């Protein structure tokens, strides 16, 4: 087996390992770029301490870095997945755990094969990654997106429950619940006529429509060319 | 009408008046309350709907509450009138 064949077999094996971990080709490319960062840093004349510090910095920022990598790669699907950092982090963790089972030097060799064809890109990625990692304001971006998704979903759930309750009003009593402890609550079911219920229902439907539109609008921000607007 | 029946009727009328006044007071002081749909079945959570209520709804509720208070008071007056010589 000549050297080239050996390298190709190693590359093939590496891809198989990652594919067996459930990663798509695009995800493998993105993750290999992350790994390439580590590889190139190691090839530069960093001492071990600096190297570890840099890698730790990158690792601490990996959700944001992964997001940025995906933007670089213009992969719409990955950007969507990046909206759910826990999913992506699970995949990265799985990848690392899987990769740890194979020979470490083989892994670095695989990376070197993959990036040596395009070291310029790898270096560009490294520089941009570090710039990005040091912009701490951006490191929460994915978490903010996740938080926003939770808020929008909660608002939609609330709107659905209100509409359901109004639709099944025969199973409920209408009550003015006091906020202060000084006054008592008052049931007012008998005061609500058809006009009241019709208005409440119309307003509930309007709120639900608005909540769903907010979700669609938010999702649409991630539809154009795989990049956030 | 027996005395205990008169007493019971009077208590019933006063209770209805108090309930109507409490409803009207709560509607007038709506900012101190949360309008909630309270489930009759156990284990089913209540649903807050205060933010769905617009001025039109409050006006209807207040109008009906005032009518109810007036009706309760009239019922008491009518009952009292039976005992006027």
Structural account:
The complex is a heterodimer of chains A (229) and B (85). Chain A folds into two domains: 3-139, no CATH class; 144-220, no CATH class. In chain A, 74% of the residues lie in helices and 4% in strands. Chain A has helices at 3-20, 25-43, 48-60, 62-73, 76-82, 85-101, 104-116, 119-134, 141-167, 194-220, and strands at 172-178, 186-187. Chain B is mainly α and 85 residues long. Chain B has helices spanning 3-28, 55-81; strands spanning 33-39, 47-48. Chain B has a two-stranded antiparallel ribbon. In chain B, strand 1 (33-39) and strand 2 form a beta hairpin. Classes of the chains: A mainly alpha (229), B mainly alpha (85). The A-B interface holds A 161-162, 165-166, 169, 171-180, 183-188, 190-193, 195-196, 199-200, 203-204, 207 and B 19, 22-23, 25-27, 29-30, 32-41, 44, 46-49, 51-54, 56-57, 60-61, 64-65, 68. Strand 1 of chain A pairs antiparallel with strand 1 of chain B.
How large is the share of residues in beta strands of chain A?
Answer: under 5%
Tell me what portion of residues of chain B adopts beta-strand conformation.
5-15%
Straight-line N-to-C gap of chain B: 16 Å
Mean pLDDT of chain B: 90
What is the domain tally of chain B?
1
Number of domains of chain A: 2
Largest sheet of chain B: 2 strands, antiparallel
Largest beta-sheet characterization of chain A:
2 strands, antiparallel
- Globally, the shape of chain B reads elongated
Radius of gyration of chain B: 17 Å
Structural class of chain A: mainly alpha
Average pLDDT taken over every residue of chain A: 61
Radius of gyration of chain A: 26 Å
**If helices are DSSP runs of H or I spanning 4 or more residues, what is the number of helices of chain B?**
2
As residue ranges, the low-confidence spans of chain A are 39-46, 68-142, 223-229
Helix share, percent of chain A: over 70%
Overall spatial form of chain A: flat
Number of strands of chain B: 2
């Amino acid at each position: 087996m000549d050297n080239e064949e050996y390298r190709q077999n190693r590359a093939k094996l590496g891809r198989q390992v990652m594919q067996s971990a459930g990663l798509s080709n695009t995800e493998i490319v993105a993750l290999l770029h992350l790994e390439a960062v580590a590889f190139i840093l190691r090839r530069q004349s960093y001492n071990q301490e600096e190297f570890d510090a840099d890698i730790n910095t990158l690792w601490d920022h990996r959700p944001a870095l992964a997001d940025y990598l995906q933007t670089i790669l213009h992969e719409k699907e990955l950007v969507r997945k990046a909206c759910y950092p826990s999913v992506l982090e699970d995949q990265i963790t799985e990848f690392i755990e899987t990769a740890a089972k194979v020979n470490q030097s083989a892994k670095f060799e695989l990376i070197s094969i993959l990036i040596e064809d395009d070291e310029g890109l790898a270096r560009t990625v490294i520089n941009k990654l570090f710039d990005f990692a040091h912009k701490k304001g951006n490191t929460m971006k994915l978490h903010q997106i996740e938080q926003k998704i939770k808020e929008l979903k909660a608002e939609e759930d609330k709107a659905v429950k209100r509409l359901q309750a109004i639709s099944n009003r025969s199973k409920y009593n209408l009550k003015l619940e006091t906020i202060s402890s000084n006054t008592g609550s008052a049931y007012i079911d008998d005061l609500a006529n058809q006009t009241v219920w019709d208005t409440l229902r119309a307003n509930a439907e309007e709120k639900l429509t608005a909540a769903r539109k907010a979700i669609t609008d938010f999702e649409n921000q991630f539809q154009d060319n795989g990049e956030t607007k | 009408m027996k005395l205990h029946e008169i007493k019971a009727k009077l208590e019933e009328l006063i209770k209805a008046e108090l309930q109507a006044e409490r409803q009207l007071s709560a509607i007038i002081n709506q900012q101190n309350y949360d309008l909630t749909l309270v489930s009759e079945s156990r284990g089913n959570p209540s649903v807050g709907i205060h933010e769905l209520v617009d001025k039109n709804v409050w006006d209807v509720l207040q109008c009906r509450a005032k009518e109810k208070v007036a009706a309760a008071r009239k019922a008491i007056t009518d009952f009292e009138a039976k005992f006027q010589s």
